[in-house]
């Protein structure tokens, strides 16, 4: 397997010493919407499978960036990458769209799938569930939801001739020459009382303990409530199933002042408990390091997907979390982005889920 990270200088992409099989591009929203970076990428490598997305920030060269364009270029000798794409107009279509895409990739030689999805219209939990319905638990599934900085407007996903909102793309890797390993970790701290999700519908939360969820949330945020929904990135919710079990973290994508509804990136099941979380830079950086340690040192290529909320909390220290995870991986080549949701198993092994506020690592290694 050959691999490299290339960057966009405003006119063209860097050169490669090999012919890539697949390219995954991560573009600042302005670059993604401008079209030049995407069209130039397709023009330079017309025979490669090329996919990409807009971001909440970019990761490359041991640093966290804003306003840049980077791409991971991979070449395989005994693996065939295949790409499928679909469109969602709203969260209710997420699961069936994922099922259709998974059917297009399924096969006995499928060794892994990487997903890039619209981050504003999709229900990430249902998206993951749809892939799992068809592929089962044995096929590695990783990826992330596209971003629009901290604006929560339109997010773009690229496949074919353009980048557009509402798109979901999945790259399936077929063959015996590749191993995909992954890990994820957060580093956030829970605080405040646990409250029961008493009324919700899919990824829309209405009530906690029989009271308006938005009003309770505003009460805890204090002055930060004036900056919703953006300030919600600083205070995600940890939700836990009845009787305990694996918890997941959820971030708000939007609020409805008229109804008091709060829309999250993934499901908010009734009967689960919810608890506020907050982060400090040291713990988040240590969490990123832990994600890298879970995978261990390797000679492969790493795709890193971290949450936009982490970048906002870390500020100028965001590069420290990138360096922490890359150093833990042995300093390997890498690229990635800050997302509106991360797709990865819980920990080194476990059920694949839609996460928020985590650093996720996917390592591609020659088998």
What can be said about this structure in brief?
By secondary structure, the chain is of the alpha+beta class. It is built from 8 helices and 26 strands.
Indicate the topology:
Blueprint: E1 2-7, E2 22-27, H1 29-34, H2 36-44, E3 49-54, E4 58-60, E5 63-65, E6 69-75, E7 79-87, H3 94-105, E8 110-117, H4 124-135, E9 141-145, E10 157-159, E11 162-164, E12 167-175, E13 178-185, E14 189-201, E15 204-208, E16 211-212, H5 213-221, E17 237-240, E18 248-250, E19 252-256, E20 261-264, E21 273-278, H6 281-295, E22 301-307, H7 308-314, H8 318-328, E23 334-339, E24 341-345, E25 352-355, E26 359-366
Parallel strand pairs: 2-3, 8-9, 22-23
Antiparallel strand pairs: 1-6, 2-6, 3-10, 4-5, 4-23, 7-12, 8-12, 9-24, 10-11, 13-26, 14-15, 14-21, 15-16, 15-20, 17-18, 17-21, 19-20, 22-26, 24-25
Helix pairs in contact: 3-4, 6-8
């Amino acid at each position: 397997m050959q691999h490299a990270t290339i960057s966009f200088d405003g006119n063209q992409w860097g050169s490669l010493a090999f012919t890539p099989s697949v390219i995954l591009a991560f573009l600042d929203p302005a670059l993604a919407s401008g079209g030049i970076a995407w069209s130039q990428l397709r023009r330079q490598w017309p025979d490669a499978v090329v996919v990409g997305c807009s971001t909440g920030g970019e990761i490359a060269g041991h640093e966290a960036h804003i306003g840049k364009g980077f791409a991971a270029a991979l070449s395989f000798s005994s693996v065939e990458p295949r790409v499928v794409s679909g469109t969602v107009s709203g969260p209710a279509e997420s699961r069936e769209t994922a099922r259709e895409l998974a059917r297009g990739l399924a096969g006995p030689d499928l060794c892994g799938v990487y997903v890039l999805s619209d981050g504003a219209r999709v229900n990430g939990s249902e998206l993951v569930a749809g892939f799992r319905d068809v592929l089962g638990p044995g096929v590695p599934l990783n990826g992330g939801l596209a971003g629009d900085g901290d604006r929560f407007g339109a997010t773009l996903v690229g496949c074919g001739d353009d980048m557009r909102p509402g798109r979901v793309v999945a790259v399936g890797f077929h063959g015996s020459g590749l191993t995909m390993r992954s890990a994820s970790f957060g580093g956030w701290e829970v605080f405040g009382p646990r409250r029961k999700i008493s009324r919700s519908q899919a990824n829309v939360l209405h009530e906690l303990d029989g009271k308006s969820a938005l009003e309770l949330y505003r009460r805890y945020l204090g002055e930060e409530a004036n900056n919703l929904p953006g300030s919600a990135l600083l205070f995600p919710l940890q939700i836990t199933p009845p009787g305990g079990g694996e918890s997941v973290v959820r971030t708000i994508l939007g609020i409805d002042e008229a109804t008091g509804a709060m829309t999250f990136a993934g499901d908010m099941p009734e009967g689960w408990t919810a608890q506020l979380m907050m982060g400090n830079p040291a713990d988040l950086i240590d969490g990123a390091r832990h994600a890298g340690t879970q995978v261990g040192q390797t000679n492969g290529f790493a795709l890193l997907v971290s949450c936009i909320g982490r970048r906002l909390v870390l500020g100028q220290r965001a590069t420290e979390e990138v360096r922490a995870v890359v150093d833990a991986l042995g300093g390997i080549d890498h690229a990635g982005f800050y997302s509106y949701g991360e797709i990865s198993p819980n920990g080194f092994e476990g059920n694949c889920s839609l996460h928020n506020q985590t650093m996720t690592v996917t390592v591609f290694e020659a088998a």
